[in-house]
């Protein structure tokens, strides 16, 4: 419980110590993070493996709630700064996760195109398989491709349970061929329920792996698997087994 809300001790003449300037450190964190991962790629045991370095970015606002939405141009200008940083590193691509409205996706793809960086767009959906704006996943992918001449290397879904979007995937449709990655939640909860949850819902790793097996049946070209909220190494191991 709070100790000093009613009487802040730093208002006395005693000396207190705060942190160093983390703001400027964060400006250079992306560069250092990519450099660290790039150093792992040089290890002898990884020389024969295809280790792809992704510079990950997120939405400007709340990943669950499309509040103050940007225009395409605003999104491009906003995200260009971070993509510029990744473009100057050993990152092979930029991946935008938990994108919940199409204008931001288009802006990110355009900014990446300006800077010559391959881009992956990962949308999040609600329990009905639609983006939080109510737009269908199909429409979001098709609109982004149309507005960017198909610039994204591929698309993904993240921060949603397979049961939320599996029925929205139409086998044999052209737009589903653009989906090559899934980073699912362990929990079947909605975004609103996750926000209010008092504890982490880890779901069932084995069941989640089985659901990835079903997804691979719908998307046989699925090539990127991983986890999002509530997942850990147990879930990822089962996902790999299911999608292999």
Describe this protein's structure:
This protein has helices spanning 22-41, 72-87, 102-114, 137-148, 162-165, 191-196, 205-218, 233-243, and strands at 54-57, 93-99, 119-123, 154-158, 179-184, 224-227. With 244 residues, it is α/β, with parallel strands linked by helices. The chain has a single domain, classed as TIM Barrel (Alpha-Beta Barrel), CATH 3.20.20.330. The chain is globular. The mean pLDDT is 91.
- The radius of gyration computed from the alpha-carbon positions, rounded to a whole number of angstroms, is 20 Å
- Percentage of residues assigned to helices: 25-40%
Which shape, going by the Cα principal axes? globular
Structural class: alpha/beta
Number of domains: 1
Question: Termini distance?
Answer: 48 Å
Poorly predicted residue ranges = none
Q: What is the highest CATH level, the class?
A: Alpha Beta
User: Strand percentage, roughly?
Assistant: 5-15%
List the SSEs and their pairings:
Blueprint: H1 22-41, E1 54-57, H2 72-87, E2 93-99, H3 102-114, E3 119-123, H4 137-148, E4 154-158, H5 162-165, E5 179-184, H6 191-196, H7 205-218, E6 224-227, H8 233-243
Helix pairs in contact: 2-3, 3-4, 7-8
Structure described in brief:
With 244 residues, this protein is of the alpha/beta class.
Key phrases:
8 helices; six-stranded parallel sheet; alpha/beta; TIM Barrel; 244 residues; single chain; globular
């Amino acid at each position: 419980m709070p100790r000093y809300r009613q009487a802040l001790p730093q208002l006395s003449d005693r000396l207190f110590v705060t942190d160093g300037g983390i703001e400027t450190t964060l400006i250079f964190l992306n560069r250092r993070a990519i450099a660290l991962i790039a150093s792992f790629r040089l290890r002898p045991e990884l020389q024969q493996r295809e280790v792809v370095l992704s510079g990950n970015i997120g939405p400007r606002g709340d990943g669950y709630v499309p509040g103050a939405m940007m225009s395409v141009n605003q999104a491009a200008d906003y995200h260009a700064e971070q993509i510029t940083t990744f473009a100057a590193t050993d990152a092979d691509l930029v991946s935008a996760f938990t994108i919940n409205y199409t204008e931001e996706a288009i802006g990110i793809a355009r900014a990446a195109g300006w800077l010559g960086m391959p881009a992956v767009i990962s949308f999040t959906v609600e329990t009905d398989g639609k983006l939080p704006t109510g737009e269908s996943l199909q429409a979001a992918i098709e609109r982004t491709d149309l507005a960017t001449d198909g610039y994204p290397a591929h698309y993904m879904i993240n921060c949603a349970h397979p049961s939320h979007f599996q029925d929205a995937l139409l086998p044999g449709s052209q737009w589903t061929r653009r989906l090559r990655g899934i980073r699912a939640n362990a929990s079947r909860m909605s975004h609103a329920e996750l926000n209010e949850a008092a504890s982490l819902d880890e779901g069932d790793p084995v069941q989640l792996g089985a659901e990835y097996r079903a997804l691979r049946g719908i998307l046989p070209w699925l090539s990127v698997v991983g986890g999002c909220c509530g997942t850990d190494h147990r879930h990822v191991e089962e996902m790999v087994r299911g999608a292999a």
